[in-house]
Structures are given as structure tokens and as C-alpha cells.
């Protein structure tokens, strides 16, 4: 049943971050990844070799999220300093910094960032847009090509902290502690809202775009049908009661994966959905109590990237 899941851990060196790893993301090819942590660093890594290729330093407080632009030329990061940073990958130069209350920025920590989807037309403005989600209950959209420092749009429908944000075409998906999953159709200026009845952590969209997976603060994941808002499946076995843990679909949508506050990575078979995990991966040897909140899956291979609060990053192959 689990033949399509990785089993062998490849530690990416010693503790790469001196503190919790809050986010890990593969680039579009899966050859490289970026990470962000409590030590205020953003790192570019070769995960298969465990090499740090470059460090991006500029945040004054812990980094809470990182992502890579669809063309792999820029890194976007955000954190407790209420700012969004836009880095040039090759040079390590900070190209733009978005935020600050005088520039229409967030007034609280920035929990999550997203870059425009690669599925968009490269000439489309939305392909270049950056989205940021904050504890201040808002989502802000930024244009890194413009000299204007103000956001190009502010979405203020959430009633509590917005915990994740992502693009799917011209749609924007958000999750919030207010127990609601929202999809913004930016082109048509419409919003679709589903109430799940429990504070939401992280949201991920399936490869075919039909399903949304979200972690919830009752130690369950829920898979929601995008078109109807119906809950299709629930997954349990992991621990998620206190803070954000991330989740993902594998590249072929065959499995769903999430981190856990008990220091493990949990995997479930999507086709034979049950609440019992198909496989459990221990992220750090002899440190099972160290939470693992950062998760990403390879874009084309059965590999999982995990980051724990111990500072370790592991590639599962």
C-alpha cells in the first residue's frame, strides 16, 4: 500500500538552523529547497547532499514562512517583524521589502507568503503577484515589479489570524483561526467561504485542483471538495493542538502528508482513505518529542522534506 512513499531519511547536515525550522519549500525542479527559521535566517539548500548554498540575512525577528517564485529567480520570506522580503536567489541581494505601517503594511506578524502560480500566463500580472497573510486578519497583495510600496489589494474578510495563503491559477486560498476556508476569485471579484467549525492551520490544494487539505487544531486533517465545500475525508493519528503544522499532497495525489507536534511525519493513502496513517516517519532520532511543523513534497518524485523545532531538516527518499 505504501510502496509510493519514501522511507529512507537523508539528514541535511547537522542542525542547519539554531532554533525551530518554520518552513521548508522545494523549488520547481525539486533539486533545491529553501528554509526559514527562528534564527531569522533564510537558507538555500541542496537537500540531497545536505549543503547550504546561500544564506539570506535581513529579518530582525524569526522567519515564519518562505517560498520560491515559479521561475526560481526569487525567494519570498516573512516573519515576526511584520515584513515581507523579496530576495534575488543568485546574488542573495534583498530586492524589495514590503511592509511597515506607513506603507500600508501588516500591523502584526506575517504568518505566510505565496508567489504567483506557474500555471498562469507569464505575461499576466497575477503571475508576478506576492500574497502575504497575517495575524492582523488580513491578506495583502504586492507587485514586486512596481515602484509603489503600497499593497495593490487588501483582503480583510477574516475575523481572526490568517494562517496560510496560496495561489491556484487566479484564485487565492486562505485558511484562518476563524474556522473558515476562503477562496478568492480575483478575476471575478468573488469569494467562496466554507466553515469547518475548528480553527484551521495550513491549507494545500491537490494537483488536479479538485480538493483542499487543511490541518486543524483538533489533531485532524480534513479534505474538502473545492467545488462544493463538502468534507470528503478526515485523517487522524498525528498531534496538532497548539500551533501550525503543514500538510501536502504527494506529486501524484496518491498520498497526503503532514507534520506533527510529536516530532513525526504522518502519511495516509488517498485512494484507501482511513483515519489510520499508512506510514509514520520519525524526523529526528531519539528526539521524538521535538515538534515537526514544516513539510513539503517533491514536485515530481516520491520525496518528502521535513523541518523540526530542533533545527534539523530531513529529506525522505
UniProtKB/TrEMBL annotation:
InterPro entries xref list: WD40/YVTN_repeat-like_dom_sf, WD40_PAC1, WD40_repeat_dom_sf, WD40_rpt, WD_repeat_MORG1
Pfam family, one: WD40
Record flagged with keyword Cytoplasm: yes
Main location as per UniProt: cytoplasm
Subcellular location: Cytoplasm
WD repeats: 56-97, 130-143, 248-278
Record protein name field: Anaphase-promoting complex subunit 4 WD40 domain-containing protein
Organism of this sequence: Compsopogon caeruleus
GO cellular component: catalytic step 2 spliceosome; cytoplasm
Protein family membership: Belongs to the WD repeat MORG1 family.
Keywords: Cytoplasm, Repeat, WD repeat
GO biological process, one term: mRNA splicing, via spliceosome
Amino acid at each position: 500500500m505504501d510502496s509510493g512513499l519514501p522511507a529512507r531519511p537523508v539528514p541535511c547536515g547537522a542542525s542547519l538552523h539554531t532554533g525551530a525550522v518554520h518552513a521548508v519549500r522545494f523549488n520547481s525542479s525539486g533539486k533545491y529547497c529553501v528554509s526559514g527559521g527562528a534564527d531569522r535566517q533564510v537558507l538555500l539548500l541542496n537537500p540531497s547532499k545536505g549543503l547550504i548554498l546561500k544564506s539570506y540575512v535581513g529579518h530582525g525577528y524569526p522567519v515564519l514562512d518562505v517560498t520560491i517564485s515559479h521561475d526560481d529567480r526569487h525567494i519570498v520570506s516573512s516573519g515576526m517583524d511584520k515584513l515581507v522580503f523579496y530576495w534575488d536567489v543568485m546574488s542573495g541581494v534583498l530586492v524589495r521589502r514590503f511592509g511597515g505601517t506607513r506603507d500600508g503594511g501588516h500591523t502584526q506578524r506575517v504568518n505566510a507568503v505565496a508567489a504567483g502560480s506557474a500555471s498562469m500566463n507569464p505575461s499576466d500580472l497575477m503571475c508576478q503577484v506576492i500574497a502575504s497573510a497575517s495575524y492582523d486578519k488580513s491578506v495583502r497583495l504586492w507587485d514586486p515589479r512596481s515602484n509603489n510600496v503600497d499593497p495593490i489589494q487588501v483582503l480583510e474578510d477574516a475575523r481572526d489570524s490568517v494562517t496560510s495563503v496560496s495561489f491556484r491559477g487566479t484564485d487565492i486560498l486562505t485558511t484562518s483561526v476563524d474556522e473558515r476556508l476562503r477562496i478568492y476569485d480575483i478575476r471575478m471579484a468573488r469569494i467562496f467561504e466554507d466553515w469547518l467549525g475548528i480553527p484551521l492551520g495550513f491549507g494545500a490544494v491537490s494537483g488536479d485542483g479538485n480538493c483542499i487539505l487543511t490541518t486543524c487544531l483538533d489533531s485532524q486533517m480534513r479534505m474538502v471538495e473545492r467545488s462544493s465545500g463538502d468534507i470528503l475525508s478526515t485523517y487522524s493519528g498525528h498531534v496538532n493542538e497548539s500551533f501550525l503544522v503543514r500538510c501536502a499532497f504527494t506529486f501524484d495525489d496518491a498520498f497526503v502528508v503532514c507534520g506533527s507536534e510529536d516530532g513525526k511525519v504522518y502519511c495516509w493513502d488517498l485512494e484507501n482513505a482511513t483515519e489510520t496513517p499508512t506510514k509514520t516517519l520519525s524526523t529526528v532520532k531519539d528526539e521524538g518529542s521535538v515538534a515537526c511543523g514544516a513539510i513539503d513534497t517533491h514536485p515530481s518524485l516520491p520525496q518528502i522534506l521535513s523541518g523540526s523545532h530542533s533545527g534539523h531538516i530531513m529529506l525522505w527518499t
